[in-house]
């Protein structure tokens, strides 16, 4: 991460979220807020005109409305440019808030007398929208919300302060006593513009206002916190998804590299598809096909040339090398040969010790395949000549080439290596073995394809190979046209050795010279793999560094504008962020229906609706706060009749029961200490969180309960419309006129019932995950109920209140802003549309959050599958204990991987009879069916490796029908030297058991294939060097005299026997095995050796075991 944020630290992820993402999501809400306010102002004008009021007679109202329309239209124009909004987010949001606040205060002092309940709903709207719809942070929104609340309370508190001449309260009073004379009211011509002739002390109403505003602030802050949490979670999930996509792309690329380092592209695709199918199906790693045969990935190719090359003198040189020098020398040499092969369109097939062979004409046919192989052979000889001339080390190159047809592909289940088989391949191998050092030895078939491109000379056959003598065909040596030029120019023999001094070892001279070739390290493309366990989701470096507050948020232009500045990863980052834009909900989408927001996939829609919701308990707790606010308000503005108190007591009980059910899991410890019959109670909250039907029922019941309690006070008001303030002799009625019906509530409770209804609307928005259609239904139901109550059945209460307020005036009809029923209805509609917009937005965010979580899970699963596939592929090339060296952040590519071991047991097991069995004819599809049987043999051998008792056996490679394996390679370097001989070589017994098991497997195959193959096994143990070489096709291998002797033990062995050296026989006897001497035999390169056969009738001196062969 330090590299990512240097040298100039770009904005952090949180800053990017605050400055761009959060703003881009709230931008549509700001526009909708301004549109709602403008339509609300137009609705006020329309209602005033429709109600027959003369607008010209109320210049204050008209001026306020026109200023409001002009100001908000200007703000809408400013906000319509997203670029301006991004530059001036806080100032513009502050202007919108200030304009709303100014409009509210203008409404307070326009249209009639000022009352304590005036414009409470409008200020509640301002408070809630500051949190829910303005692009402000939580602190700024809280400051604006509290400032809005205090401004209303302070202005009315100062304006409606205690006045000695104020009128009595609008409370039900006892009828006047006969001795009292009513005070006469005198009519006043102009409409009063001053404090309402209400109660002597407005503190109770102001306290009710404070409770309303406090509830509005808490509900708004809660809504904003939920939305912020959802937005931030979706944002992080999108970044995690982007990170997973990058990891997935990286893993796919690495898999391609890995597969292509083993197999040609056409074969890699086929095998990868099968491996993916196995991983996704959760099957084992070695399933068989439906015809009971293992899959065979072998094809026949004609018109190819095969090159075999061997480094003469390398075995003696390698014996003088340290492990690091040996691996470096091999990697540099074969890395150079790989470069030459690439230049001449040849494909390296395999490395066998110091033998290198490749093919031209695979996988695509090439007309010049023979010339390509000859050129490559000449360049290889030339490279070795330069090496010899520079170092003075006596090594040379022997090359053989033959042209014909091959069967190519992969056999077995583990340690895949692309290989070729055919009689032509065998001939090419013998061409190399019988060739001359420093020359390219070719057959007549290859010479015919050269078409005179190179001069040749006949090869001397006196010392020729018996296989070639049996064929009786002439062979040729290619004359290198540049050999004479090099001889004429001359090279200072042993130039490097003369500079370094005569005392330097030849192997060190070789190593120093080869380092100058600069061959690539194995698996260099995996050196920067991101750690699979990394949980960070860094933002793209260029994307962050190029971000600035002046950067345009016009995302329709962003992808084109960024192409020149951002790389592909950054472009993908902005594409992902663009998919989260809330404006997308109105456009066609592959995931959503733009009208209903339903997922297009029915299964996903079902999964979304059935998903658990642990946060439901917090929704219920917040709605209880709204209910409690309604209760306090009712207690403040009413005379608290017993029936109302009893009703609220019952409702409190229901709410406490709901909260207990929702939070019962937090009471587990307490409940478990009680009677066992109550131990089931904590499961109630789990049921509520996991059962959608139960949640919907409880949520709907809660909202309806709040709605019902908001209008309960109307039940205790007179049902008949007999307002005493509208009597004919009202002008001469006493100002302390009381209600005639005992037990009724004060008229002042009517506007506060409307305000409680508004809180009921807000409670609907607190259920963030409630479906949009259910919220729409509940809001419509409550809108219809509220309007029918206050505009129809109980409209007379509003008229009676107005009559009481304007008692004794000529014009008892106030402006539309001062008439409770009209202003209440307009408030209901404004809150209805506002909450509808928020409900739609909430629904979109909830579904988007669910969608991205699902995408993230799917991508993580796919990434995990890809990582498993990469691991399987890598472990199919390398041993399990070596593979981590090349994966992720563990990769250390500064040095080549090499390891020396003191005691490793090496096995060579061959099926010599297969050479006679193999034939090429039309009956067996030119040898393909023969290879199918070999594939079964090798695959059955590989299946043994999955058994726990053979977990220490490591397959190295297969060479035609020879199987090479080793034990002791998973021991820590140097560990063997610290252990005694018995412990250090205890794995020899595992290898013997494995050899016996191979023989048993071959017997089973013989039984089913009606053959009589027998196994020939050679074992040896001792020190070896292990390492990984080859950049284009990395290969794990082991080298050393132990390996060479083990190979000779097999090649000089006897069918059905396990031949071992004298040292290995002694070690096995110490482990309880029986060996008997074969005698002294001649071993190529080793002279006379005394060898032993292992008695396989008994494994150790105990229970009988299967006889080998």
TrEMBL record:
<keyword id="KW-0067">ATP-binding</keyword>
<feature type="binding site">
    <location>
        <position position="311"/>
    </location>
    <ligand>
        <name>Mg(2+) 2</name>
    </ligand>
</feature>
<dbReference type="Pfam" id="PF16214">
    <property type="entry name" value="AC_N"/>
</dbReference>
<feature type="binding site">
    <location>
        <begin position="352"/>
        <end position="354"/>
    </location>
    <ligand>
        <name>ATP</name>
    </ligand>
</feature>
<keyword id="KW-0325">Glycoprotein</keyword>
<keyword id="KW-0460">Magnesium</keyword>
<dbReference type="GO" id="GO:0006171">
    <property type="term" value="P:cAMP biosynthetic process"/>
</dbReference>
<keyword id="KW-0472">Membrane</keyword>
<feature type="transmembrane region" description="Helical">
    <location>
        <begin position="752"/>
        <end position="769"/>
    </location>
</feature>
<dbReference type="GO" id="GO:0007193">
    <property type="term" value="P:adenylate cyclase-inhibiting G protein-coupled receptor signaling pathway"/>
</dbReference>
<dbReference type="InterPro" id="IPR001054">
    <property type="entry name" value="A/G_cyclase"/>
</dbReference>
<feature type="binding site">
    <location>
        <position position="310"/>
    </location>
    <ligand>
        <name>Mg(2+) 1</name>
    </ligand>
</feature>
<feature type="transmembrane region" description="Helical">
    <location>
        <begin position="92"/>
        <end position="110"/>
    </location>
</feature>
<feature type="transmembrane region" description="Helical">
    <location>
        <begin position="29"/>
        <end position="49"/>
    </location>
</feature>
<feature type="binding site">
    <location>
        <begin position="1044"/>
        <end position="1048"/>
    </location>
    <ligand>
        <name>ATP</name>
    </ligand>
</feature>
<dbReference type="GO" id="GO:0035556">
    <property type="term" value="P:intracellular signal transduction"/>
</dbReference>
<protein>
    <recommendedName>
        <fullName>adenylate cyclase</fullName>
        <ecNumber>4.6.1.1</ecNumber>
    </recommendedName>
</protein>
<feature type="transmembrane region" description="Helical">
    <location>
        <begin position="61"/>
        <end position="80"/>
    </location>
</feature>
<dbReference type="GO" id="GO:0007189">
    <property type="term" value="P:adenylate cyclase-activating G protein-coupled receptor signaling pathway"/>
</dbReference>
<feature type="binding site">
    <location>
        <position position="354"/>
    </location>
    <ligand>
        <name>Mg(2+) 1</name>
    </ligand>
</feature>
<feature type="domain" description="Guanylate cyclase">
    <location>
        <begin position="305"/>
        <end position="432"/>
    </location>
</feature>
<dbReference type="Pfam" id="PF00211">
    <property type="entry name" value="Guanylate_cyc"/>
</dbReference>
<keyword id="KW-1133">Transmembrane helix</keyword>
<dbReference type="GO" id="GO:0005524">
    <property type="term" value="F:ATP binding"/>
</dbReference>
<dbReference type="InterPro" id="IPR009398">
    <property type="entry name" value="Adcy_conserved_dom"/>
</dbReference>
<feature type="binding site">
    <location>
        <begin position="1037"/>
        <end position="1039"/>
    </location>
    <ligand>
        <name>ATP</name>
    </ligand>
</feature>
<feature type="domain" description="Guanylate cyclase">
    <location>
        <begin position="905"/>
        <end position="1050"/>
    </location>
</feature>
<feature type="transmembrane region" description="Helical">
    <location>
        <begin position="643"/>
        <end position="663"/>
    </location>
</feature>
<feature type="binding site">
    <location>
        <position position="310"/>
    </location>
    <ligand>
        <name>Mg(2+) 2</name>
    </ligand>
</feature>
<feature type="transmembrane region" description="Helical">
    <location>
        <begin position="696"/>
        <end position="720"/>
    </location>
</feature>
<feature type="binding site">
    <location>
        <position position="957"/>
    </location>
    <ligand>
        <name>ATP</name>
    </ligand>
</feature>
<feature type="binding site">
    <location>
        <begin position="310"/>
        <end position="315"/>
    </location>
    <ligand>
        <name>ATP</name>
    </ligand>
</feature>
<dbReference type="GO" id="GO:0005886">
    <property type="term" value="C:plasma membrane"/>
</dbReference>
<feature type="transmembrane region" description="Helical">
    <location>
        <begin position="618"/>
        <end position="637"/>
    </location>
</feature>
<dbReference type="InterPro" id="IPR030672">
    <property type="entry name" value="Adcy"/>
</dbReference>
<keyword id="KW-0456">Lyase</keyword>
<dbReference type="InterPro" id="IPR018297">
    <property type="entry name" value="A/G_cyclase_CS"/>
</dbReference>
<keyword id="KW-0547">Nucleotide-binding</keyword>
<keyword id="KW-0464">Manganese</keyword>
<dbReference type="InterPro" id="IPR032628">
    <property type="entry name" value="AC_N"/>
</dbReference>
<keyword id="KW-0115">cAMP biosynthesis</keyword>
<comment type="function">
    <text>Catalyzes the formation of the signaling molecule cAMP in response to G-protein signaling.</text>
</comment>
């Amino acid at each position: 991460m330090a590299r990512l944020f240097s040298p100039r630290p770009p904005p952090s992820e949180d800053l990017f979220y605050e400055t761009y993402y959060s703003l881009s999501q709230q931008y549509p809400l700001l526009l909708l807020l301004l549109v709602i306010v403008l339509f609300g102002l137009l609705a006020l004008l329309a209602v005033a005109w429709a109600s027959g009021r003369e607008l010209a007679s109320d210049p204050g109202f008209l001026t306020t409305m026109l200023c409001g329309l002009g100001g908000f239209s200007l703000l809408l124009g400013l906000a319509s440019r997203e670029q301006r909004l991004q530059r001036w987010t806080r100032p513009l949001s502050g202007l919108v808030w200030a304009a709303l606040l100014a409009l509210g205060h203008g409404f307070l002092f326009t249209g009639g007398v000022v009352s304590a309940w005036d414009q409470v709903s409008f200020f509640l709207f301002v408070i809630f929208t500051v949190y829910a719809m303005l692009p402000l942070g939580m602190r700024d929104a809280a400051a604006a919300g509290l400032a809005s609340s205090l401004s209303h309370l302070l202005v009315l508190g100062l304006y409606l302060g205690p006045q000695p001449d104020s009128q009595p309260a609008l409370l039900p009073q006892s009828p006047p006593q006969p001795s009292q004379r009513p005070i006469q009211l005198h009519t006043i011509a102009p409409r009063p513009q001053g404090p309402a002739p209400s109660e002597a002390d407005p503190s109770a109403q102001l306290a009710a206002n404070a409770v309303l505003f406090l509830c509005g602030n808490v509900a708004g802050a809660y809504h904003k916190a939920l939305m912020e949490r959802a937005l931030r979670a979706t944002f992080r999930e999108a970044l995690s998804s982007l990170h997973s996509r990058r990891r997935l792309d990286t893993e796919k690329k690495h898999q391609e590299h890995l597969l292509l380092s083993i197999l040609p592209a056409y074969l890699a695709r086929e095998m990868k598809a099968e491996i993916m199918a196995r991983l996704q199906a959760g099957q084992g790693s070695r399933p068989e096909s439906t015809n009971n045969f293992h899959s065979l990935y072998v094809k026949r190719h004609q018109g190819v040339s095969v090159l075999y090359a061997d480094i003469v003198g390398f075995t003696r040189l390698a014996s003088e090398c340290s492990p690091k020098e040996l691996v470096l020398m091999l990697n540099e040499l074969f890395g150079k040969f790989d470069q030459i092969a690439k230049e001449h369109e040849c494909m390296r097939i395999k490395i066998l010790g110091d033998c290198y062979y490749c093919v031209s004409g695979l996988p695509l046919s090439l007309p010049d395949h023979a010339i390509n192989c000859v050129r490559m052979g000449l360049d290889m000889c030339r490279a070795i000549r330069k090496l010899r001339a520079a170092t003075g080390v006596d090594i040379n190159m022997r090359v053989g080439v033959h042209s014909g047809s091959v069967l190519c592909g992969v056999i077995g289940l583990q340690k895949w290596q692309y290989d070729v088989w055919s009689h032509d391949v065998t001939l090419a191998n013998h061409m190399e073995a019988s060739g001359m050092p420093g020359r390219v030895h070719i057959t007549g078939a290859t010479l015919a394809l050269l078409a005179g491109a190179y001069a040749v000379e006949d090869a001397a056959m006196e010392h020729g190979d018996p296989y070639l003598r049996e064929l009786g065909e002439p062979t040729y040596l290619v004359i290198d046209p540049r050999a004479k030029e090099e001889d004429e120019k001359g090279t200072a023999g042993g130039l490097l050795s003369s500079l370094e001094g005569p005392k330097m070892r030849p192997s060190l001279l070789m190593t120093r010279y080869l380092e100058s070739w600069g061959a690539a390290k194995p698996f260099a493309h995996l050196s920067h793999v991101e750690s699979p366990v990394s949980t960070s989701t860094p933002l793209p470096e260029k994307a962050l560094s190029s971000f600035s507050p002046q950067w345009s948020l016009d995302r329709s232009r962003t992808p084109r504008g960024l192409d020149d500045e951002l790389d592909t990863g950054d472009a993908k980052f902005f594409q992902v962020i663009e998919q989260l834009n809330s404006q997308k909900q109105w456009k066609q989408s592959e995931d959503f229906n733009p009208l209903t927001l339903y997922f297009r996939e029915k299964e996903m829609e079902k999964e979304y609706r059935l998903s658990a919701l642990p946060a439901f308990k917090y929704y219920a707790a917040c709605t209880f706060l709204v209910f409690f606010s309604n209760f306090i308000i009712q207690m403040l503005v009413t005379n608290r009749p017993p029936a109302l108190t009893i009703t609220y007591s019952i409702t409190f009980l229901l709410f406490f029961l709901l909260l207990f059910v929702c939070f019962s899991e937090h009471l587990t410890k307490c409940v478990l200490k009680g009677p066992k019959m109550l131990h089931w109670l904590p499961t109630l909250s789990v049921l509520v969180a996991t059962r959608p039907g139960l949640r919907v029922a409880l949520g709907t019941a809660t909202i309806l309960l709040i709605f019902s309690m908001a209008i309960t006070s109307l039940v205790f008001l007179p049902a008949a419309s007999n307002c005493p303030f509208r009597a004919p002799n009202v002008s001469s009625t006493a100002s302390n006129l009381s209600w005639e019906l005992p037990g009724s509530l004060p008229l002042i409770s009517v506007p506060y019932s409307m305000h409680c209804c508004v809180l009921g609307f807000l409670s609907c928005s607190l259920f963030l995950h409630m479906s949009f259609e259910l919220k729409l239904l509940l809001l419509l139901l409550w809108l219809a109920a509220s309007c029918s109550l206050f505009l129809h059945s109980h409209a007379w209460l509003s008229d009676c209140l107005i009559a009481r307020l304007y008692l004794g005036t000529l014009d008892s009809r106030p402006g539309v802003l001062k008439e409770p029923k009209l202003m209440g209805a307009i408030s209901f509609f404004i809150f209805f549309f506002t909450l509808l917009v928020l409900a739609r937005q909430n629904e979109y965010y909830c579904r988007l959050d669910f969608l991205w979580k699902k995408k993230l899970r799917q991508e993580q699963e796919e990434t995990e599958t890809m990582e498993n596939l990469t691991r399987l592929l890598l472990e199919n090339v390398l041993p399990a204990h070596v593979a981590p060296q090349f994966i992720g952040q563990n990769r250390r590519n500064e040095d080549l991987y090499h390891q020396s071991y003191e005691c490793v047991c090496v096995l060579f097991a061959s099926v010599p009879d297969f050479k006679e069995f193999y034939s090429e004819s039309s009956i067996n599809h030119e040898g393909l069916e023969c290879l199918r049987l070999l594939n079964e043999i090798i695959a059955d051998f590989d299946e043994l490796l999955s058994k726990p008792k053979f977990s220490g056996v490591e397959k190295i490679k297969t060479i035609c029908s020879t199987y090479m394996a080793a034990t002791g390679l998973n021991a820590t370097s140097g560990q063997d030297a610290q252990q005694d001989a018995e412990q250090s070589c205890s794995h020899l017994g595992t290898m013997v058991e494995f050899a016996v098991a191979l023989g048993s497997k071959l017997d089973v195959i013989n039984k089913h294939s009606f053959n009589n193959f027998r196994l020939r096994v050679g074992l040896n143990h001792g020190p070896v060097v292990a390492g990984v070489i080859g950049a284009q096709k990395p290969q794990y291998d082991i080298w050393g005299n132990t390996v060479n002797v083990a190979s000779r033990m097999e090649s000089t062995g006897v069918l059905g026997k396990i031949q071992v050296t004298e040292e290995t026989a002694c070690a096995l006897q110490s482990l309880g095995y029986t060996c008997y001497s074969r005698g002294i035999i001649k071993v190529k390169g080793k002279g006379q050796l005394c060898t032993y056969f292992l008695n396989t009738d008994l494994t150790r001196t105990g229970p009988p075991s299967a006889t080998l062969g």
